[in-house]
Amino acid sequence: MNLRLTSSALALAAMTAPAFADVTSEQVWQSWVDYYQSLGYTVTEGKRDKAGDTLTLSDIAISGGVPDSQVSFSIPQVTLSDSGDGKVKTVFADQMTGEAQGTDPDGESYSLPFTVDMPGNVIVTSGAPEDMTHEFDYPTMDFTLTTIKSGDKETPLPIKVGVADSTGTFHIVAGSPAKYDYAMKSGAITFSGDVSSEEGGTVKFEGSLSDLETTGEMAVPDGTKIEEDMNAALKAGLAMSGVLKSGALVANFDFAGTDENEQPTSGAGKYDGKGFELSYALSQDGMAYQAGSDAGSFELTSSDMPFPINYAIESGSFDMQLPVMQSDEAQPFKFAYSLAGLTLGDAIWNLFDAQGQLPRDPASLDIDVTGQIKVTKDIFDPASMAPAADEAPEDGSEDMDAAEASPQPFEPVEVAINQFALNALGAKVNAEGTLKAPESGDMTTPVGEVNASYEGVNGLIDKLGAMGLIPEDQIMGVRMMMAMFAKPVAEGEDKLETRLEFKEDGSIFANGQQIK
C-alpha cells in the first residue's frame, strides 16, 4: 500500500467531496480545516469576508506530506452561505490548482503541477456540530496535467481526466476518534494523454470508464499524523475501509520510438473490460485487499512482432489478508487467487503448436491458502523495517546482503492449502493439505500432509514429446520423476495421485516411500 499516495488521494477526495460543515458558515469552514489537519495537512487563508449570511474565503492554501513527497492545493475562493433553515451551501471556485513535488528513487527532485476544474459545484450541509451530513453535486470535474519538471528539465505531460455527474454524501461524527463515511456515484469518466520521452518516443492513450461507485469509512483519533507516522496512528485506533466498483473500462493506446538498435518501432493496443470491484481495509487488526474483474480482453500489435498478442479472461479475483502488528502469538492470514476462462490468440498458439495438437480450451487457476503467521515487526514502522546500521555494506554497494540478513517480518507457523486447481492443455492438477511448524522448529522442516491428484498428465507428456517440446532423451527422466511422486489411481486410466507426508524428524514420504 502506498501510504503517501493514499493520504494525498484522501486530500484530493475532500476537494471533490463535501467540505465539512455545521449549522453556520463559520463552523463549516472550521470543520473543513480540522479535517485536513487530522490528515497532517496545513490550511491557510489569505482573506476572510462576511457579508450578511455569506462567508467568503480567498486565497486558500492547503499543503502536506513528508519531505520527499508533498502535495499542495491553491483555491482562489470558497463561499459558504447560511440558508436560514440550519443548512449551509458551499461553493468552490470553478478552478483550483495544485502541485505534487518531492524526490524520486534516484534522488532527482520533481514537480508535477495540475489543475482541477469544477464548474457548477455545490455542497449542501445539514445537521449539528457533532453530526453533519453533506450532500454534493459536481456536474463536471476535469483534472489536467501539462508538464513535469525533473531536476532542471521540464517536459510536456498532457494528461486529462474528466468525471461527469458526480453526486453523493459525506458524513462526519465528531469525537475521538472522529468518524467519516462517504458514498459517491459518477457518470462517464474519460481519460487521454500524449506522453513523450527524452529519447523521442511517444505514447498516446485514451479511454473511458462507466458507472463508477465508491463507498468507505474512516476513524481518525485525535492527535494522529497519518502522513508522518502511520504505525502510531494505527496503534491509536486509525481504521479505514472502502469499496470501488466500476462498469465497462475501454482503453486504446499507440506508441512510437526506436528500439535498442536505434531502429524505428511502433505499435498499438487496446483493452476492453466489462467491470471490476476493488476493496480494502486497514487497521491495527490487519490489512485486506480484494479485487475482482468481469470478462476482459487485451490486444497488442507491434512492428517488432510478426503477429498480434491477444488474450482474454472470463473473470479473475484476488484476496490478500495480513496482520500488521508485531505479536508473539500467531495471527491468521489468507491469500487467494482465481483466473477463469483464460484464452490465447491462435497466433500465440501457433508459435509452438502450429498443427493444433494441444487442446486450446480455456484455462483456469484457483489458489486458496490460509494459515497462521507470527509478525516479528510492525509492518508500518519504518524504523523496525529498515536494516540495522551494522548490517549495511561497508563498500557502499547494494544492500542486498543486509536485506537478506535482516530478520523477515513474517514467520509462518501453519499453512493450509485449501485449494490448488490448475486446468490447462487438457490436463488437471488438484492439491490440498496442511503443514505446520514442529514444536521445536520452523517451516523449513514442516509437519503435515499434502494430497494431490492429476488427470491427463501422461497424455500431455506424450503430446509434448511428439511435438519436440520435451526432447526425446529426456522423456524417460520426466516419467521416472513422475513415478517417484505419483502413482496410478486405476489401471488403464490417465489418473495419478500423490500423498506427501512430512514427519517430525524431518523425513518426507511420497505414497509411503521415503524420499528424504
UniProtKB/TrEMBL annotation:
Coiled coil: none
Tagged with keyword rRNA-binding: no
A Pfam family of this chain: DUF2125
Biased composition (Acidic residues): 391-402
Region annotated Disordered, chain positions: 384-404
Keywords of this entry: Signal
Residues annotated as signal peptide: 1-21
Protein name, UniProt field: DUF2125 domain-containing protein
Organism this protein belongs to: Paracoccus denitrificans (strain Pd 1222)
